[in-house]
Design goal:
This protein has about 300 residues and is of the alpha+beta class. It contains ten helices and four strands. Helix 9 runs antiparallel to helix 10. The model has no long low-confidence stretch (mean pLDDT about 80).
Length: about 300
């Protein structure tokens, strides 16, 4: 066991010396990999920060019926019961929102409190919120019900809700696929950069490797420092990519805070959780080591 540890410690020290012996080349390669890795990390930060916001929004399709100004609470209750009885196969839930409750909700929002405080009376109508059952042809079904309910005598207007939420979910799904493809592209960049780095190191130390083989060095002994070189390059690049991403989120959050304040809300971009970042560092180190092994195998056959 101690012999095995000594061999790996020796290989790690050799890899560190090789990195240090060519500082400009090593730093250039690490910067290329780290800046490339920072792109999917920032994209993942945006996706991770947007998902809780979407989950808080009502994703079930809803249709809101606004009654005419003269409608009474009893009219709203009777109409809600009528809709439930006429469309039991389409409606999941029906709730009546009294105009007084709607006004209290709006006044609780600081963005609306000042404007509503100067009104002499409540301008809001009674409303009925209808949640529809999910189906394969939901959009067509919701539009048909909205057209039908607009013809009702007590109804002033009908609004289809949650459609924009469904579009947002579709956009997030598209972003997830794009992030996966971006991660694949980043993996190829890491493989290519480490492969070329190890290739140059192997060609530079061609004579040293030949002498080591003549005195009895095994193939694993020759290749092990190059594997550590690739793994160390991947680890250092990943850590620098996380630091670059954290720094990039500072101005992004400042700009996002100004935009969110204009809508009366708050949204902060944050890095993925620590476990995901650690797994990413380990994965990049493994990919870099595999690329180094492939490179040293191809370029030390002499």
């Amino acid at each position: 066991m101690s012999r095995w540890l000594r061999q790996h410690r020796y290989a790690c020290m050799v890899a560190l010396r090789r990195l240090w012996s060519h500082p400009f080349s090593s730093l250039s390669n690490i910067l290329v990999i780290s800046l490339t890795l920072a792109i999917p990390i920032i994209a993942a930060s945006v996706l991770v920060s947007a998902q809780p916001v979407v989950k808080q929004l009502p994703v079930s399709p809803e249709v809101t019926l606004f009654l005419r100004p003269g409608a009474t609470p009893d009219t709203a209750t009777q109409l809600a019961r009528q809709l439930r009885e006429e469309h039991p196969q389409d409606i999941q839930a029906v709730r009546v929102v009294a105009r007084e409750d709607a006004l209290k909700t709006l006044k609780a929002n600081p963005a609306w409190a000042d404007a509503l405080s100067v009104l002499p009376s409540n301008p809001l109508p009674h409303a009925i919120v209808v949640s529809l059952i999910e189906s394969t042809d939901l959009a067509k079904q919701a539009n048909a019900l909205a057209r039908e309910w607009r013809q009702l005598e007590a109804v002033d207007s009908v609004q289809l809700d949650s459609e924009w939420v469904r579009r947002l979910e579709a956009i997030l799904g598209f972003v997830r696929i794009g992030l996966g493809l971006l991660a694949l592209g980043v993996a190829l960049v890491v493989l290519a950069t480490v492969f070329n780095t190890v290739r140059m190191q192997a060609l530079t130390q061609r004579e040293e490797i030949g002498v080591a083989r003549l005195v009895g060095a095994t193939e694993s002994f020759v290749r092990r420092p190059f594997l550590y070189l690739g793994a160390l390059t991947g680890v250092i690049s990943s850590i620098m990519a996380i630091l670059f991403s954290a720094l990039a989120l500072v101005p992004l959050n400042a700009a996002l805070a100004r935009l969110a304040d204009s809508y009366g809300t708050q949204l902060i971009l944050s890095l993925p959780d620590s476990m995901s970042l650690v797994l990413a560092v380990v994965l990049i180190a493994i990919l870099a080591a595999l690329s180094a092994r492939w490179s040293v195998t191809r370029n030390t056959r002499f």
